[in-house]
Amino acid sequence: MSLNLLALLLAALAGSTMAIQGALNAALGKVVGLLEATLIVMSIGLITALLTLYPLGLGKGNITKLTEAPWYTFLGGVLIVLITYGVVASIPRVGVANATTAIVAAQVTTAFIIDHWGLFGMQAIPFSWWKALGLALLAAGTRIMLIR
Fold first, then answer.
1. Are 120 and 72 in contact (CB under 8 A)?
2. CA pair distance 65, 73, nearest whole angstrom
3. CA atoms of 87 and 104, how far apart (whole Å)
4. What distance in Å separates the CA atoms of residue 138 and residue 136, rounded to the nearest whole number?
5. 90-126: per-residue pLDDT in tens?
6. CA angle 134, 136, 139 (to 5 degrees)
7. Total number of domains constituting the chain
8. Torsion over CA: 87, 90, 92, 95 (sign)
């Protein structure tokens, strides 16, 4: 199996688990509250990351190089709170499929911008007419999915 195919399968697995996670987080939010669910989910994520990084030895990097990272790379920690809160708040109102559809459409649009301009140290991958067509079809599909 090629590394690209494996990477895409891993991405698809992440996408599937995001839909499940969104539903679980929304269910937790109904019980304990939106910000409280966000805090609980983030805390469990921290514990899980610590357990997989150290006792299981799955980390392959060098955490001591933390100070060498550009300041903006740490904004991911802020954004994950916004992401989790947004999911917890939106899914009970519009459903898992509708919320996930909006999430995916926004993700792909933003990803094209990041790719095209090579933002955040990513390799620049130019936007093309084929990608524009794909984005238009995604937008049309999103609109169809959001019709009640």
1. yes
2. 13
3. 12
4. 5
5. 999 988 888 888 898 899 999 999 999 999 999 999 9
6. 110
7. 1
8. negative
